[in-house]
């Protein structure tokens, strides 16, 4: 598993330099957290930081699994249906079933 | 799976790229407008991370990118709700880093825990010292936006590393 990006991206300002050391915007993460439920009121500084890394890991995993589905379909273009297949094939992603079942 | 499924930030029929639309939401009787773009992480960031995981020749359809945005927001909501429940049970008001980590592990993402702990450790070290010794950040001019408040850098050439404002 490639770890090289972890610290260099954190300390070197990210790949584009525009979002700072974390590759995902912390304020936006915090806003999404707040929208998740009425009870969520106060969030510590570290929580969005953890999410910025967790989301990265999540996106990578879902993308890889979706890509496996694309390859099975003999394509090199990732489609929505590949993401849906990855979700359907992975118990861990059961919480996402409703996201891809809606039209 | 728990029945307390988090409210989906997606909304039926709303696509992440339609950032000019606003959806009104009433919170305690006060209307709060949440812009579509605020419900999702920016597509450019999401795309960049997806590309890291895929071969160089991979192409990604627009609706796959949008679906990924939806999924990430759902991931954040899902974990946050669980972390929030834990806080409520323990009569705490603030969701902290450990709550998030526990929720992530609870839902089966144990593989993420080690890299996350490492990341958090490094973050804490870096924020204590202001910069890390021996790290190569020779091309790390971090732009001005989002800098830590209240941190003094007496030496103007010290690179500012942390984002920060919450």
TrEMBL record, chain A:
The keyword Cell wall biogenesis/degradation does not apply. It is found in: Nucleus. The keyword Transcription applies. GO terms for cellular component: nucleus. Keywords: DNA-binding, Nucleus, Transcription, Transcription regulation. Pfam families: CBFD_NFYB_HMF. Its main location: nucleus. GO terms for molecular function: DNA-binding transcription factor activity, RNA polymerase II-specific; protein heterodimerization activity; RNA polymerase II cis-regulatory region sequence-specific DNA binding. Belongs to the NFYC/HAP5 subunit family. Stimulates the transcription of various genes by recognizing and binding to a CCAAT motif in promoters. This is Transcription factor CBF/NF-Y/archaeal histone domain-containing protein. It comes from Canna indica. The lineage of its organism: Eukaryota, Viridiplantae, Streptophyta, Embryophyta, Tracheophyta.
TrEMBL record, chain B:
PANTHER family: CCAAT-BINDING TRANSCRIPTION FACTOR-RELATED, NUCLEAR TRANSCRIPTION FACTOR Y SUBUNIT BETA. InterPro entries: CBFA_NFYB_domain (IPR003958), Histone-fold (IPR009072), Transc_fact_NFYB/HAP3 (IPR027113). Keywords: DNA-binding, Transcription, Transcription regulation. This is Nuclear transcription factor Y subunit B-10 isoform X3. Residues 40-104 form the Transcription factor CBF/NF-Y/archaeal histone domain. GO terms for cellular component: CCAAT-binding factor complex. It comes from Canna indica (Indian-shot). Residues 16-25 have a biased composition (Basic and acidic residues). The keyword Coiled coil does not apply. GO terms for molecular function: DNA-binding transcription activator activity, RNA polymerase II-specific; protein heterodimerization activity; RNA polymerase II cis-regulatory region sequence-specific DNA binding. The keyword Transcription applies. Residues 1-29 are annotated as: Disordered. Belongs to the NFYB/HAP3 subunit family.
